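Re: that chain you flagged

S.,

Sorry for the slow reply, it's been a week of failed gels. I finally had a moment to sit down with the sequence you sent. For the record, here it is as I used it:
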Amino acid sequence: MSTLKTILLTILVPMMMILPSCVGPETQFIQVDPAFGNYISAYTSGVIARRDRIKIILTKEYEGKFMDSKELTGLFEFEPALEGYATWVDKRTIEYTPLKPLPVAGNFIVGFELNKVMEVPHKYKEFRFQFIVKNQNMSVMLQGLQSYDRFSYEWQQLDGRVEVSDWADTSEVRKTLAASQEGKKLKINWGYTSGHTHYFSIDSIVRKEKESIVLVEWNGKRYATKEVRPIFAEEADGIVVVTIYVCHSGRERR
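Prediction finished late last night. Pasting the structure tokens below so you have them in one place:
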């Protein structure tokens, strides 16, 4: 078994376990000629994270004059276009760094001018490979109602957190969540972010004499997630908290 085949198996086995939740059955992956294993020992493939870099590792050290970043960047062609820059990590490794986080569930085909960094037969002058960006799943965890003052239960707050499966811009995460009480919009205070976890507190929930409904809604469509979360209700001190998740298809599950 060639070196390339060994690498491909290492890459493809975990990819096969992840793909069902990330891409549809219509996705077709490029079949790489095993003979490229004579020139390339490893490269980025399968499912990657939004902030990952794209790497190509040659089988032997580059012997020519090192290209500057602009010239090296020109050896890459992405479909769809991907703005970024390439650098030498060492004499065998070339790394392409996107200027922005990769799009959720993006599917990229890459062309690399291999003949510009080593001598290869004409049929191997361009190396084409493919990778996809992992899907973004999110979930909302509510931690229960709390009183502002232990001597008065009129004003309550609801703490919780949003968890995402991959890096997400904080401002985008905040747009996914909304809360209201009896039709009145409630303020959401956002706390710190730890890794893929974003903490929040829903402010100024009023404890009334009669049962009152607090509605917490979150919309995962912004991240193209197809995960459907269960809807549940929590009751405490006459306040019923109901959550609604808007699924990818745009329909509400209650």
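What I noticed first: The chain has three helices and 18 strands.

Talk soon,
D.
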